[in-house]
Design goal:
- The structure is a single chain.
- The chain is an alpha/beta fold and 482 residues long.
- It has a domain of 231 residues: Rossmann fold, CATH 3.40.50.
- The protein contains 20 helices and 15 strands.
- The strands form four sheets. Strands 3-4-14-9-10-13 form a six-stranded mixed beta sheet, with helices on both faces. Strands 8-5-6-7-15 form a five-stranded parallel beta sheet, with helices on both faces. A two-stranded antiparallel sheet has the order 1-2.
- It is globular and about 60 Å long.
- The chain starts with a strand and ends with a helix.
- It binds pyridoxal-5'-phosphate (PLP).
- The site of pyridoxal-5'-phosphate has 16 residues, from α11.
Length: 482
């Protein structure tokens, strides 16, 4: 299995999985993709149906990571995907399933279900991939005797998932910038209560964009980056996408009895990383009818699927909503999907993609838009804050299940795309405890908290405050890096 870049330059020298594991963008500014998607045979699909999550993850990921010895990879997936790590399941769910399928009920002539992906340590789906990445990074670094300093900026979910995945790992330190006083009390406590010596929480005196700008400034200094072995774990990391492919298969098996059945998935989307994994699962041959891309008021993606126009917004045009992890102005993984849409013709793709820089947008023709729906199976939907409140109330009243704001965005879009006889699986991307302010607004009572999180905000916190200044952050890294 070899990898090239969407921008074409790396076609000449394809890379292996371990070559790109620690990489972000390709050197030409594009995103890595496998030169072709591995195909799953009917026999494999049947054999995989009964596998545990860890064994299924091994079978799928080995197709993409054939430069990791099979025994090593299998040991890693078995260490990572355990009920101890994914223990925050609801009453009546089995932690051994890792991603239990929770049927809500019958609607629109079919089954509406949630795929619970948020039972890991930070109560959001990002743990599903990030925990694996932590183990893979440690493995890859140990093989070559290297070390890595991960630098990131977060407004919540990504930073905490990265820290919980990297804590205590050999050869890795994490420097995570966050806007001082701007995260929820829960999110702040989740990150700042970590006492592991390889985790550094840096509260920056500024807003999220200031923190993000500092990370960009450091990344644009190749000499500093090389000298201090600076890396990232952002959503374009290919291994994160691959890890997410696994639960589409797991969800399919849980919702069907035989491989001639089809299901649809609805995915609360921001950077298009999660649903991109669904697209890849479908390209591998998983019988998926629809992939529904759900957005909030930041509807760049819904607009694309409705009109064929992709028009990234400016940062200042990004709304702060009650499903904050979907507040994006451009979708960083979208390039992977559009590259496939153009039949992986790098020249055709580039002619369209450059219009984002020159004209601020591109628009696809009628024929291409029909293919997006008919051939690639995509649909979309959008919700507002009022929609979220109404959905949270309705799902609680009808089914006795409290869902988080992002998942509510998904359910709203899913209900608009139900097809009789085709189960609709909504990916649950966070547990409601993370966003209890909105749950209280909707239901008049706080969200249920999983066991062990009762006293989170009271735990001792460990962090340093820094000015919003690149040189100050660099000096901090120099002092504390491995
Ligand atoms: C990150 C995140 C999303 C968006 O996922 P993408 O892969 O960026 O599309 C949705 N919901 C929650 C809770 C998240 O943390």
């Amino acid at each position: 299995m070899k990898y090239f870049s969407t921008r074409g330059a790396a076609h000449a020298a394809p890379k292996s999985f371990l070559d790109i594991l620690l990489a972000g963008l390709a050197d030409d500014g594009g995103l890595y993709l496998p030169t072709e998607y591995p195909q799953v045979t009917a026999a494999e699909l049947s054999a995989w149906r009964g596998l545990s999550y860890a064994d299924l993850a091994f079978e799928i990921i080995r197709k993409f990571a054939d430069d990791i010895p099979a025994d090593d990879l299998h040991a890693i997936t078995r260490r990572v995907y355990t009920p101890e790590v994914y223990r925050n399941v609801r009453d009546g769910e089995n932690a051994a399933d890792i991603t239990p399928l929770r049927v809500l009920g019958e609607e629109g002539g079919t089954t509406l279900a949630l795929l619970a992906l948020s039972n890991g340590p930070t109560l959001a789906f990002k743990d599903m991939a990030m925990q694996l990445i932590g183990a893979l990074f440690e493995y890859a670094l140990a093989r070559t005797g290297q070390h890595l300093n991960i630098l990131g900026a977060t407004s919540g979910d990504t930073g905490s998932a990265a820290e919980y995945a990297m804590r205590g790992r050999k050869g890795v330190k994490v420097f995570m910038l966050s806007p001082k006083g701007k995260m929820s009390a829960f999110q702040t406590a989740q990150m700042f209560s970590l006492q592991d010596p390889n985790i550094f929480n840096l509260a920056v005196e500024g807003v999220f964009d200031d923190a993000q700008d500092i990370v960009k400034a450091v990344s644009n200094d190749p000499a500093f980056k090389a000298k201090w072995a600076i890396g990232t774990v952002n959503s374009i990391n290919w291994a994160r996408v691959v890890a997410q492919v696994v639960y589409y298969f797991k969800g399919y098996f849980a919702a069907t009895k035989a491989n001639d059945e089809r299901v649809s998935f609805t995915v609360p989307s921001g950077n298009f990383g999660n649903i991109c994994a669904g697209h890849i699962a479908r390209m591998m041959g998983l019988p998926v009818a629809r992939l529904v891309c759900a957005t909030n008021e930041n509807d760049v993606l819904d607009e694309f699927f409705r009109t064929g126009s992709y028009r990234p917004r400016k940062g200042a045009e990004t709304w702060h909503t009650s499903s904050p992890s979907m507040d994006i102005s451009k979708a960083s993984n979208f390039e992977r999907f559009v590259f496939d849409l153009f039949g992986r013709d790098a020249d055709e793709f580039r002619r369209t993609w450059v219009k984002i820089d020159s004209e601020g947008s591109f628009t696809l023709d009628e024929e291409m838009r029909a293919r997006i729906r008919d051939e690639f199976g995509f649909a979309s939907g959008r919700s507002s804050h009022e929609d979220r409140l109404a959905t949270i109330r309705d799902i609680d009243a009808r089914y006795g299940v409290v869902v988080d704001t992002h998942t509510a965005d998904g359910i709203k879009a899913a209900r608009e795309q139900l097809e009789p006889g085709i189960p609709m699986i909504v990916l649950e991307t966070a547990l409601p405890a993370k966003f209890t302010e909105t749950i209280e607004q909707a239901l008049g009572r706080p969200a249920p908290r999983p066991q062990g999180f009762e006293h989170l905000e009271g735990l001792p916190q460990r962090f340093d405050v820094l000015p919003a200044d690149t040189e100050a952050v660099k000096a901090y890294i120099v002092k504390h890096a491995t």
